[in-house]
Amino acid sequence: MRSGTPRRRNKAARPLSLVLALVLLGSLYAALMPSAQVAADTGTSAQVAEGKALFQVTCSSCHGLNGEGTSQGPSLIGVGAASVDFQVSTGRMPMARPGEQAPRKVNTYTAEEIGKLSAYVASLGPGPAVPKSSQYDYSTLTDEQIARGGELFRTNCSACHQAAANGGALPNGKYAPSLHGVEPLHIYEAVRTGPQQMPVFAEGAIPDEDLASIIGYLKGIEDQPSAGFSLGGLGPVTEGLFGWIIGIGGLCLFAVWITSRGARAK
């Protein structure tokens, strides 16, 4: 070989350099990635997987194997974890058989199982999450805030649940349940998810602070003793019925009695 002639490069040098760079980059990423994040992701994935297995055993007959819905039950894609937590925690789901309305029953699931079901359904599509306790806490509300909660309740809710929150009948055999004894968490979730015939009130319509005021008002009227003859606290329906039957009926009987006495006097 003549002196001064450049050496030829090995054809494999460039691919080997690229592979070495990729290996070094991967090693650097693995070394710098936080281990806590990996553990969190693994835990969430495991919870979703366990929730899916539980869902397919207890819920898929009505809602489909992947929550897509069937003729027996609606799709759960996009309903969110809050809807699952409300329905299962209050015993409304699972239903023994489809009907007009799912009544409140004793819950047979553990909190851990409900969390797994909620996590799985939440993974199907974005929806309302289970709220934090600070979002519905009413313990620090002022009297003015609770009074505002009463105004909001009478404006938005009393048409179905009645002014005293005793519940009421709806068309086609359905009903608005009583709100006495309902957990604040479940009231919050019902407002945000709109179960059964109830409309959905997003945070843009009723902010969290207003919703906490409504909850504070409802808890306040639970503790108030009944003043006099409340007629069930159902509002103008029972009051009007009482007025017609007792009031006007009594006047009619009195008029007949007066007439009969006058006839005897003659």
From TrEMBL:
It is an enzyme of class 7 (translocase). Its EC number is 7.1.1.8. InterPro entries: bc1_cytC-su, Cyt_c-like_dom, Cyt_c-like_dom_sf, Cytochrome_c_Oxidase_Subunit. Residues 46-125, 144-222 form the Cytochrome c domain. PROSITE patterns: CYTC. Keywords: Cell membrane, Electron transport, Heme, Iron, Membrane, Metal-binding, Repeat, Respiratory chain, Signal, Translocase, Transmembrane, Transmembrane helix, Transport. Residues 1-39 form the signal peptide. Heme c 1 binds at C59, C62, H63. It catalyses: a quinol + 2 Fe(III)-[cytochrome c](out) = a quinone + 2 Fe(II)-[cytochrome c](out) + 2 H(+)(out). Pfam families: Cytochrom_C, Cytochrome_CBB3. Binds 2 heme c groups covalently per subunit. The chain crosses the membrane at residues 241-260. Gene3D superfamilies: Cytochrome c-like domain. Heme c 2 binds at C157, C160, H161. This is Cytochrome bc1 complex cytochrome c subunit.
